[in-house]
Each structure stands twice: as C-alpha cells, then as structure tokens.
Amino acid sequence: VSTGRDVVAKIVDPEITAGEFDDEAFIRETAIVASLNHPHVIRVHDYGVQDGKPFVVMDYLRQGDLTHKLAKGLEIDELIRVMNQLSSALDYAHTKDVVHLDVKPGNILFSDQAVAVLSDFGIAEFQCGKNGAAERRTVLGTPEYMSPEQAMGREIDGRTDFYSLGVVFYQMLTGELPYRPDRGGNVALRQARDPVPQLPDQFSALQPIVDGCLAKAPEERFALGEDLRRALAEISMEGIVPK
C-alpha cells in the first residue's frame, strides 16, 4: 500500500539476543511504539515478522542524524533547539510508559525542516529474549550513553533517558564524551564511579544542565523534560560557542 511518504524498513536480527526471540513480545511492544504520535518521534507505519525476521517500517528522513551534525559543529541556538525538541519527545513517550533506552546521536534524525526526531524507540525492548529485562538492557544499550542503573541491569525509568540525553548534550557542547573507557575498556564502571565531569570554563553557565542529567542517583536528575527546558531557558547563552 502506498503511503505517499519516504519510508525505510529496519530488520531486527534476533540472533543478537541472548535468548530465544519472542515474536509476541516484539509485536506487542512495537504496537505501543507505533501508536506514538508526536512531531519529534519517528513515525512507525508497519511492523511484523516475516520469514522469522522481525521488521519495522518507519519514516525516512533525508537530512541524516546528529552524528553528521557533530562532525560539522552546531551553533548554540541549534543545540538548545535540539535539546528542547528531544526532551519534549521523551516527556511524551514517558507518559505512554515507553522508555527509549538508547538515546544517542545515531538515533537522533533530522527532517528537511531541520526538526530533530528521535528514532528507534524501544529497540532494546523489541529485541527481547526470554532471559529477563535487566539482561537485555545491559546487552543492547550503547555503553557510552548508558546510565549507571541501566548498565548494571537495575530498575530503570524515564530518568534513564535523561541521563543519555545529558551525554548527548555534553557531546554537542564540547565535542567529547563525558566518560571514556578505562584501561580495561570499561566505560560503565567510570560512569558509575567517577564524578560528574566539569565543563570547560567557557561553558560553565551550563554546568547545572550537565549536573541535572548526569547525576549518579536517578532521584537527583531531571525527572521531566519540562524541568530541563525551564532550566535551559533561565541561562544566558550569550558568548557560548560549542566546539
């Protein structure tokens, strides 16, 4: 059936899961994500399992993802706009009991109108085996963007997504990740153990945003994107030039 829109099909490889792939769980969870309707959330048009392979059909956005923008650099106005749009998307999803679990530059796409759109909602939940939530979250997240509780397989909620968004914010601002792997290649341990990094002096006005996103304890983070947006609005951006 023609939709009149450019779409892309994403094939989920069930072999990457730790246990037997659960088709019913995939259909059930994807149906929830497909019901999301928000200007900053990717639109899912179809989904199912064909020849044993789960698939999701979603909007195709031609302007690439945040990874490409990071390579070119962002103006502060664009950076703040992206944060506002993504935090709005997360607020909406969380009201629908959907936690993203993998907020990172590769999952932040842009429309022809330069609108930020969060994609791959719930992919960690789509790719679920039968070995338990904690295991699949640990395996399927992206370590550099994981909250301490997600990396350790503990209980998660929407504040986990705001931690990941904080990592993206830090990266957009400084051009670097807040935590890099230790000598053993373990970044999760550093995120759980090391203090929240201090921004370079030229970005110090934005330290409260980093603190409110990257706090180790979920109860010390922004609980709502609305709170994050309010905090951003109260900070003067004059003279701040992202790297």
Describe this structure in words.
This protein has 243 residues and is of the alpha+beta class. The protein has 2 domains: 52 residues, Phosphorylase Kinase, domain 1, CATH 3.30.200.20; 174 residues, Transferase(Phosphotransferase), domain 1 (Orthogonal Bundle). The longest helix has 20 residues. This is Protein kinase domain-containing protein.
Ordered list of secondary-structure elements with their pairings:
Elements: E1 7-11, H1 23-34, E2 44-50, E3 53-59, H2 66-72, H3 76-95, E4 108-110, E5 116-118, H4 123-126, H5 133-140, H6 148-151, H7 158-174, H8 188-193, H9 207-214, H10 225-233
Antiparallel strand pairs: 1-3, 2-3, 4-5
Highlighted features:
alpha+beta, Phosphorylase Kinase, domain 1, 2 domains, three-stranded antiparallel beta sheet, 10 helices, 39% helix, globular, ATP binding, kinase, transferase, Ser/Thr_kinase_AS
